[in-house]
Structures are given as structure tokens and as C-alpha cells.
């Protein structure tokens, strides 16, 4: 299932540290699958089929008995997450957000660097939530590898700016600001971004909009993944 879904170009494979969106698929590659129904940090829910109308795993499609399918709380059982990237919609999707998409929003261009073999290595450019290297990832970085530098094409920010906050040679926070070139014609746009940090409590932070809350990150733990897109104000 994993190879078929990823091979379609519509899904990417994510580790369980990834913050799944409703509609993403939790996969036990040997035995089972379930769908993320809700993942908001309070009451995570899964939807799944567990048994057929015959009492086994073989039966007619659908829920004949009203007890074949269920929605219930999250439980640990999964190898990873199949995350829909939005390509069939003409855009990309990630972590419950739509990226620069079919609405003709501007597309930010950015990339990050990590250390490999004692040397600084720049990864592929991202265009919004799309990797130009065709990895299927919707983030810049490699899970578990601290980012040591980030570059954003300021022209793709409408002439805006970004600030990287470093600690011990590693990225610990990020600020991005989009400057709308012609707001009278288009309305205002905002940089929409978030980061995933490592440390004792690794997780994705909340989405940030321009410099409203100063930065994304916690100013302490190294960041390993960055997502950046543009949205309407």
C-alpha cells in the first residue's frame, strides 16, 4: 500500500512524529490501516474498519451491520503516515493547511542546510510546500537532522525579509515577512510558516503569520523541518 500510494505522486511517507491532517492514513505495513479523522492536540480520532459482516476480514464492501466501522481515540500501532500532498487539487496540502495553490497565490522559494560527514550540505529548493527534488516531502529538511542554515529567496517574498535565529550553530527559530507588492490590486498576503523542533519534546509548532508573534520555534531546541507558504490576509 505504501509503495502504491507514494508511487502515485499524490502521497508522501511521514514518520509518526509528523502532525497528521484529517484524511491522512495511518499505516501498519503488515496488518492494518486507519484514517486520521481529527488531530488537534486534544481529542485525536481514528476511523477504521476492523471486522466484516462475517466476523472475519472478508466480506462485502461497506458496513452491512453498523458495527464493521468505528471512530474512536488514537492508539499506538503504526509504522508511519501516508500524507496527501494536494497535487490532484492543483496545489499542495500539509498539516491541515493548503499551501500556495490553485488560487494563484505567490509561491515562496526556500531551502535549508544540514551537516553530513562533517560538511554543510544544502538540500533541494522548496517552492511553497513542494520539493523541487521530487521527494514528495512538503517540508524543507530531514527529520531528525538539525538545520544549520536556511536561505529564502527574498524576491519570492515580494521584497519582504526573513530572520534566522541561531544557537550553537543550529537554527532554533525563524521569522518570515511577506511584503505585498500591489495590495490595492490583490489585497494583502501573509507569510504562513511553522517549524518542527527536536529536544525533549519534539513536535510541530503552530502556524505563524508574518511577524505577528515574532518567530516560529522555541529559541532553544534545534529545528529539523520547516514549512513555508503564502496565504491571504
What does this structure look like?
It is built from two helices and 21 strands. It is mainly beta. The protein has two domains: 2-82, no CATH class; 92-232, no CATH class. The strands form five sheets. The chain has a six-stranded antiparallel sheet with strand order 1-6-2-3-4-5.
Main attributes?
233 residues, mainly beta, 6-stranded antiparallel β-sheet, 5-stranded antiparallel β-sheet, 4% helix, globular
Query: How many structural domains does the protein architecture include?
Result: 2
**Which stretches are poorly predicted, pLDDT < 50 over at least 5 residues?**
90-103
Helical stretch count?
A: 2
The profile of the biggest β sheet is:
6 strands, antiparallel
Classify the beta-strand content into a percent band.
35-45%
Label the structural class.
Answer: mainly beta
* Inertia-based shape: globular
Could you give the order of strands across the largest sheet?
A: 1-6-2-3-4-5
Distance between the first and last residues' Cα: 39 Å
- The average pLDDT value, as a whole number, equals 85
Helix content: under 10%
Entry summary:
This protein is mainly beta and 233 residues long. It has helices spanning 2-7, 183-186, and strands spanning 11-14, 25-28, 32-38, 45-49, 69-73, 80-84, 93-94, 97-98, 109-116, 119-122, 126-127, 130-131, 140-141, 149-152, 161-167, 170-177, 189-197, 203-204, 208-209, 216-217, 223-232.
Amino acid at each position: 500500500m505504501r509503495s502504491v500510494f507514494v508511487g502515485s505522486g499524490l502521497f508522501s511517507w511521514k514518520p509518526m512524529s509528523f502532525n497528521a491532517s484529517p484524511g491522512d492514513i495511518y499505516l501498519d505495513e503488515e496488518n492494518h490501516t486507519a484514517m486520521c479523522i481529527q488531530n488537534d492536540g486534544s481529542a485525536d480520532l481514528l476511523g477504521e474498519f476492523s471486522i466484516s459482516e462475517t466476523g472475519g476480514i472478508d466480506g462485502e464492501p461497506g458496513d452491512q451491520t453498523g458495527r464493521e466501522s468505528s471512530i474512536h481515540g488514537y492508539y499506538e500501532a503504526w509504522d508511519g503516515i501516508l500524507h496527501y500532498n494536494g497535487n490532484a487539487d492543483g496545489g499542495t496540502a500539509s498539516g491541515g493547511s493548503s499551501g500556495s495553490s490553485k488560487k494563484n497565490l505567490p509561491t515562496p522559494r526556500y531551502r535549508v542546510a544540514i551537516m553530513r560527514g562533517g560538511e554543510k550540505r544544502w538540500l533541494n529548493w522548496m517552492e511553497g510546500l513542494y520539493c523541487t527534488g521530487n521527494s514528495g516531502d512538503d517540508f524543507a529538511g530531514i527529520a531528525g537532522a538539525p538545520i544549520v542554515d536556511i536561505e529564502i529567496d527574498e524576491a519570492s517574498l515580494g521584497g519582504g525579509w526573513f530572520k534566522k535565529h541561531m544557537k550553537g550553530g543550529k537554527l532554533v527559530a525563524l521569522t518570515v515577512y511577506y511584503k505585498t507588492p500591489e495590495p490595492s490590486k490583490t489585497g494583502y498576503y501573509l507569510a504562513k510558516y511553522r517549524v518542527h523542533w527536536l529536544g525533549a519534546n519534539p513536535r510541530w509548532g503552530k502556524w505563524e503569520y508574518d511577524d505577528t508573534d515574532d518567530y516560529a520555534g522555541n529559541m532553544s531546541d534545534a529545528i529539523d523541518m520547516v514549512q513555508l507558504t503564502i496565504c491571504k490576509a
